[in-house]
Input
Amino acid sequence: MKKNLLFVIDSLDCAGAEKSLVSLFSLLDYSEYSVDLMLFAHDGILIKSVPREVNILEPLTYTKFSNLSLSSAFKYSLGKLNFKMISSRLKYSYKIRRKHFNNPQKARIFWQSVSDVIEHNTKVYDFAISYAQGVPTFYVAEKIKAKKKFAWVNAIYRLDEVEKNFQQKYYDQFDKIIAVSETAKEVFIETFNQYKLNTEVIYDINNANLIMEMAEMGKSYEDGFKGIRILTIGRLAKQKGYDIALAACKTLKESGVNFRWYVLGKGPLRDEMEEQIAKEGLNDHFRLLGVEANPYPFIKDADIYVQTSRFEGFGLAIAEARMLNTPVVTTRFDAVYNQMIDKKNGLVVDMDSNAVSEGIRTLIKEEKLKEKIINYLRTEKKGNVEEMEKIYNLIG
Output
């Protein structure tokens, strides 16, 4: 008899945790497991990459309600003579607009505002997996019945006492905590030492054969540019350090380097970044390409991959660049040394624009160093599908 699995994640946008989950799905043995997937947003670009064996559950009632316009939401509430959902929605909107919040704070405020109107899933699962921190974790802890529950930790957050105390009552409901890197585990245990014995590491799944095949398919750069192509992939959010990238871009331009810096991603900073690009006269040097379902031809055809993140749980885009033998310049975020060896498979630099621009210039000017890095990348082990054995041990 098949075991019933539930995976819960915010969305299937083209980001690290989402790509890891889709890779996991591509490798899972569906003769042994029946899989449900719960999403809180259903417009992610990776949805079409989910295997047909995975049952994507109907959106929650509140998810559908939150997508209505405000006037339609009021009409819906009036028709049902039930104002709980509109009250919850307005409460969340009011609180979230009062000041800038980080991701853990946003997740807490959302759950405090709307959890009372989110229905329970009545099915009983063998295993329920929250594949991201925040709302998916709260949902699995409070709204799901399962014989065992596992919570993934795929971002590095150092929590204050308010967030720690709020999250603890949810993590108490889980049988194991799964961190996506040793550093993610260490930082999580700094905050929640009581879960030390129940926390283990399973790296983000990446299937090298699939990535290399996809790198030969689909479109790549279409602007005919002949200079140095620099690529960054990531959500347009503060975590990714795009202010560092833009300042580094300006420095490179002023130094006369013939380059173009491309970004694949979407997010809340897009308008602000476009304004900054125009203000600094970088329209011809820093290009926002939006999201591509298949980013791998862009990675393969880039001369340098750059990551300017302030923090990452692992850094899956870096791993993908390494798999495609594209030299990397990355900031020294907490988990970077889980996969980077400075001056071997890329350059690890300080978290400031001068260091980033200097790292890029080094790879452009020092051809022998760049070739040495590329040759090293060619010899590196590609992918980590063996991590699936840890998954099977977890759900065996």
Notes: The two ends are 13 Å apart (CA to CA). The chain has two domains: 3-208+386-395, 209-379. The CA atoms of residues 176 and 197 lie 9 Å apart.
